[in-house]
Amino acid sequence: MALYGASTEYVLHSLLWLVDTKEPLSSLDLADLQEIPSAFMAKLLPKLEKAGILHASEGMKGGYVLAKPAWEISVLSVVDAIEGRKSLFNCQEIRGRCALYSEGPPRWATQGVCGIHAAMLRAEQAMREELAKTTLADLSDIVRKKAPSQFLDEAQSWFGNRVKTRREGSVRKNKILKKSVNNKELP
Amino acid sequence: MALYGASTEYVLHSLLWLVDTKEPLSSLDLADLQEIPSAFMAKLLPKLEKAGILHASEGMKGGYVLAKPAWEISVLSVVDAIEGRKSLFNCQEIRGRCALYSEGPPRWATQGVCGIHAAMLRAEQAMREELAKTTLADLSDIVRKKAPSQFLDEAQSWFGNRVKTRREGSVRKNKILKKSVNNKELP
DNA sequence: AAAACGAGGACCTATATTGTCTGCGTTATG
DNA sequence: CATAACGCAGACAATATAGGTCCTCGTTTT
Predict the structure, then answer these.
(1) N or C end of chain B: smaller count of CB under 10 Å?
(2) Of A97-106, B64-73, B142-151, which gets the smallest average pLDDT?
(3) CATH number corresponding to B6-85+135-181
């Protein structure tokens, strides 16, 4: 229905939270804060790591940090990392499929790029150039201008408290408990 | 996988055949010439008629003709008619979904357009402007420069012969025959 | 040793796209 | 005036993709 879906939206919003944070944030923290399905987020962020946008650290106290300064991360690079270089239009070379071509299409018909395809490619290029102009720093500035500084502080301490409460009740813990209960019931 | 699919491709190629033709062409003729599923084409072209791009004439010897000169029909208008004004990105207002907002999002958070959405809208606008620049006349020129005039004449006479052979073996006829055979077998 | 991470794969489901088939009204033609 | 060739509309079916869940594994801190 749209070229870019919820995955891209989730990831871009998550990246904004990472701009001002020094310590690594986990995919679970990012998902819970934004009320986004956490298991889904966990599948998205590794793509950004492979694209060199995020740096991941494993193990307890691990998580994600921007791998580059925010002004060097364009919206285009994020979109490409998540959606995988989607094109606007997928040419099927209809021009070579004419019933009048008895034995395959002649050379003049399939030479160069199809005119329709070319028009689509120009539009796609214009779109990509526009997406390349905006960086994470630009987006972050917009948020910071809108939000009261008090809120941004609250957010920082929310992440901080999360680090402290790792030991207490977490989503994972509950799942593991449920699992061990099941294991005991099985045999 | 792509924003614009096969429907758009089929229709744009079909419109090119209509540029130089005076007599109405049926969806079946257009489909058969380009080896495109004809029943599918028959569902597409009425959309162009509603959008004011094609003029349809019903009944025998009916078919489609361009409703406007080719230089007034942009690729954008065709795409919109077929795909229905698809947007590049569908904003779900993630910014209003923060766990820190205890009783709904504050005004400052949801004021104006989301920064991420705005960037996508700029890209979409750039794409649409580019698609608006190309017209059917432009595309038709490209084809006419490539194709030998002999081929274009052959195509015209193919359409002409089709009109003559209406009475003879057509796809529809075979289907109707099959149907009556089945009807006889049923009781 | 256990808890909290990331990575990755199997799996499920809802929806959009692509296509087929039917019936109905309209128009030219013999 | 019957019929063939049209456009139009809607009911399906098949397939692909996006979105989402769950489970297992290895790593790192405490």
Answers:
(1) C
(2) A97-106
(3) 1.10.10.10
